[in-house]
Amino acid sequence: MRTVVIVALAAMLSACALTEDVVSIAYAPAAARPVPGAEAIRVTVTAVDARAGDRERISTKINGYGMEMAAIRSEREVAEVVREALSAELSQRGYGLGEGGPRVEVKVLVFHARFSDGLLVGKAEADVDLAVSVLSPEGRALYSHDLKARARRPVQAASGKNAAATLSDALADDFKALFADEAFGRALAGR
After folding, report:
1. Sequence-separated (6 or more) residues with CB below 8 Å from residue 123
2. Phi, psi of 168 (to 5 degrees)
3. What is the DSSP string of 152-191?
4. Calpha distance 87→106 (Å, rounded)
5. Which value, in Å, is the radius of gyration of the alpha carbons in the chain?
6. What is the mean pLDDT of residues 142-165?
7. Cβ(87)–Cβ(45) under 8 Å?
8. Among 24, 63, 124, 187, which is least packed by CB within 10 angstroms?
9. If pLDDT is split at 50, 70 and 90, which confidence band does 9 have?
10. Mean pLDDT of the chain, nearest integer
11. Distance of CA 100 to the CA centre of its chain
């Protein structure tokens, strides 16, 4: 009987790695003060998914031996997740969203999390690489910069929830670097 219980438990635990996860990637903008003069600026944000390879997959589960198993996918398009996150960051700083002002274009180059096993705890690592440009209302290039962020966190399971949280952390690191760049603020102001 004991052997049957152990085999059943092992089958249940390994089945988790075989089941595809579809997850929501939650993003909360950083606490930030409004930028002086931002309320007078309306910004349009667009994003495109320029990733090579499988654009639906954001990560892969692993089994206890570190072998890749089932896919982890976002329930929404990755470009839309990034566009909404950047829009939230701009709103947090007092910028209006809409036509008539500068256009921020984001290309998602990398958006992927991976897992590794550890002795007592595993690790999730996420890379989010973005190419950000700001164009004037007339289409003149005002700013261009590539952002590369990597986030890490300890995890107990290679799950969709952990992949989404680590990707959100990396996205927040990208935006922290973007808003720390004074040239980005000047481009939004049209200078």
Report:
1. 115, 116, 152, 153, 154, 155
2. -60, -40
3. EEEESS--HHHHHHHHHHHHHHHHHHHHH-HHHHHHHTT-
4. 11
5. 20
6. 96
7. yes
8. 24
9. very low
10. 91
11. 27
* Cβ neighbour number for residue 80 with a 10 Å cutoff: 13
Q: Taking residues 104-109, report their average pLDDT.
A: 98
| 136-171 exposure pattern, b = at least 16 Cβ within 10 A, e = fewer | eeeeeebbeeebebebeeebeebbbebbbbbbbbbb
> What is the pLDDT, as a whole number, of residue 133?
98
> Mean pLDDT, to the nearest integer, of 102-116?
97
Query: Cα(30)–Cα(118) distance, rounded to whole angstroms?
Result: 31
User: Between the CA of residue 76 and those of 40, 56, 84, what are the distances in Å?
Assistant: 31, 9, 11
- Report the run of H or E that residue 83 belongs to, with start and end: helix 78-92
Tally of residues, the chain? 191
pLDDT at residue 15 is higher than 90? no
Evaluate whether 136 touches 102 at the Cβ level (below 8 Å).
yes
Of the candidates 47, 43, 58, 32, the residue with the CA atom closest to the CA atom of residue 132: 47
| Coil/strand/helix, residue 79 | helix
How far is residue 114's CA from residue 53's CA, in Å, rounded to a whole number? 15
Other C-beta atoms lying within 10 Å of the C-beta of residue 123: 16
